[in-house]
Write a structure and sequence with these properties.
It is built from 10 helices and 9 strands.
């Protein structure tokens, strides 16, 4: 898969700094090299903010964010705004939704998220880590640990670069908000705004049950009853695993082996 402009900008930045693997440079050092001062402060209503003045910038990370991979993604996202969006707006203030709803926001937020993903997990290096391995929680965890990223960000990257057909669905308060799948995932029609299926692990969660620690098998029919191709998959089972997003959201991963 060819890299887009946002991803290419991230690779060009890493190459300009001599970066080759995680640990070569911290994100704070990358921000400093991009003429950005990074600080933490109590922010109300946003997780990260960047104020730009010419080629210089101040990036503020909400001090209430304690999860280190989350903090890294916020910082990488703001570096993306600095690299891609100079002259468009002096201020970008990013919330939990703008950082997580990758496919549902405006152009600039999508671009900053794509930049952040590539900055943290360059595609060529990512593919070398996942190729030849079966899809599963261990793979996502191992890859996330290597890059120092969240399982969520690592999973979304897998959609584009992994070996197995996969669908990623964002659900909030029991309602499907958006989905994205690899080109080879067999079932694609799931209506935005529909309720999460009762027979799914995600459905169980929104009915008050806890999240499963491991992937579970579910019927494809439960998730995709309206898909035109469902007649060919009435006996198909999918692996399902869910990740918490904020207080009221789930990122659901479905895949076939």
């Amino acid at each position: 898969m060819a890299l887009n402009k946002s991803q290419m900008a991230a690779i060009e930045l890493l190459n300009s700094l001599g970066w080759s693997k995680p640990g070569d440079l911290s994100l704070n050092e990358i921000a400093l090299a991009s003429s950005a001062y990074v600080k933490e402060s109590d922010l109300e209503g946003s997780d990260g903010r960047i104020l730009m003045n010419g080629d210089n910038a101040i990036i503020t990370i909400d001090s209430k964010v304690n999860f280190e991979p989350r903090k890294k993604f916020i910082l990488a996202h703001e570096i993306g705004h600095l690299t891609l969006h100079k002259g468009i707006s002096k201020l970008f203030s990013d919330t939990d939704k703008t950082l997580n709803e990758w496919y549902a926001n405006g152009k600039h937020e999508i671009e900053a998220n794509q930049f952040a993903s590539e900055l943290l997990m360059p595609s060529d290096l990512y593919k070398s880590k996942v190729n030849g391995r079966g899809m599963g929680l261990d793979l996502i965890r191992d890859t996330a640990d290597y890059f120092g990223t969240s399982q969520t960000a690592t999973l979304l990257k897998y959609k584009d670069l992994g070996n197995f057909p996969i669908s990623v669905i964002y659900i909030e308060k029991g309602i499907v908000k958006w989905k994205a799948e690899s080109s080879d995932f067999p079932l694609k029609f799931l209506r935005n705004g529909s309720k999460v299926p009762e027979g799914s692990a995600a459905g169980d969660f929104f009915c008050g049950q806890g999240l499963e620690d491991n992937p579970v098998l579910v019927d494809a029919l439960d998730w995709f009853p309206e898909d035109f191709g469902i007649e060919d998959h009435l006996e198909t089972e999918l692996f399902e695993h869910n990740f918490r997003i904020g207080a009221e959201g789930l990122l659901c991963c479905l895949w076939t082996q």
